């Protein structure tokens, strides 16, 4: 009885959508489905009538007529929906594609990942470290000598760099003073 009262209060368009669903064999659905179909239906009608109005104005007519609406619907169908290719064409494409054998898999256990150069997490920079010292020695001033309290350590680092130019580079962090 309650279902019958709901159907009496339902708008005519909603009743039409409900009867269309029933005619297609859809018996079990949420009530929101009818509202979504109505929204889609109204949006489609507004788009078609807007296009028909543009066609009517282009033709110099004062009002929209049946030909304008037909033209708008036809243009909507031509640009919105596409027909799939014939079955024979799809079978021919499938046969051509299936002639190419699949590559042999050489993957071991685990997830197959692309090479490092193709990933976003690989380093994208290189450090250029000179192998030789400059030809002319640079004279240090007193300020530079005071800034580097251990020059022997710097010479030792330079020797290591010359022996192995592909070594990682690290920079000592200054010690923080406790407050």
Automatic annotation (TrEMBL):
Task: Return the Low complexity bias intervals.
Answer: 147-163
User: In Gene Ontology terms, what is one molecular function of this protein?
Assistant: RNA polymerase II general transcription initiation factor activity
Residue stretches of biased makeup (Acidic residues) = 137-146
Keyword Electron transport annotated:
no
What keywords were assigned to this record?
A: Nucleus, Transcription, Transcription regulation
Q: Tell me where it resides.
A: Nucleus
A biological process (GO) of this protein is: RNA polymerase II preinitiation complex assembly
Sorted alphabetically, the Gene Ontology cellular component annotations on this record are: SAGA complex; transcription factor TFIID complex
Is Plastid there in the keyword field?
Answer: no
UniProt-annotated stretches for the region Disordered:
131-179
Question: Which InterPro entries does the entry link to?
Answer: Histone-fold (IPR009072), TFIID-31 (IPR003162), TFIID_subunit_9 (IPR051431)
Official protein name in the record: Transcription initiation factor TFIID subunit 9
Q: Which family does it belong to?
A: Belongs to the TAF9 family.
């Amino acid at each position: 009885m309650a279902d019958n009262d709901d159907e009496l209060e339902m708008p005519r368009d909603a009743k039409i959508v409900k009867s269309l669903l029933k005619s297609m064999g859809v018996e079990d659905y949420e009530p929101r489905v009818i509202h979504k179909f109505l929204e889609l239906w109204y949006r489609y009608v507004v788009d078609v009538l807007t296009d028909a109005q543009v066609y009517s104005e282009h033709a110099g007519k004062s009002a929209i007529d049946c030909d304008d609406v037909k033209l708008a619907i036809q243009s909507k169908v031509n640009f919105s929906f596409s027909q799939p290719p014939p079955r024979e064409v799809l079978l021919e494409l499938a046969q051509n594609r299936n002639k190419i054998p699949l590559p042999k898999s050489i993957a071991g256990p685990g997830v197959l990942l692309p090479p490092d150069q193709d990933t976003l997490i690989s380093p994208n920079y290189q450090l250029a470290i000179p192998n030789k010292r400059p030809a002319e020695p640079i004279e240090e001033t007193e300020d530079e000598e005071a800034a580097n309290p251990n020059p022997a350590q710097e010479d030792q680092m330079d020797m290591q760099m010359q022996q192995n130019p592909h070594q990682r580079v690290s920079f000592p962090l200054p010690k923080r003073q406790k407050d």
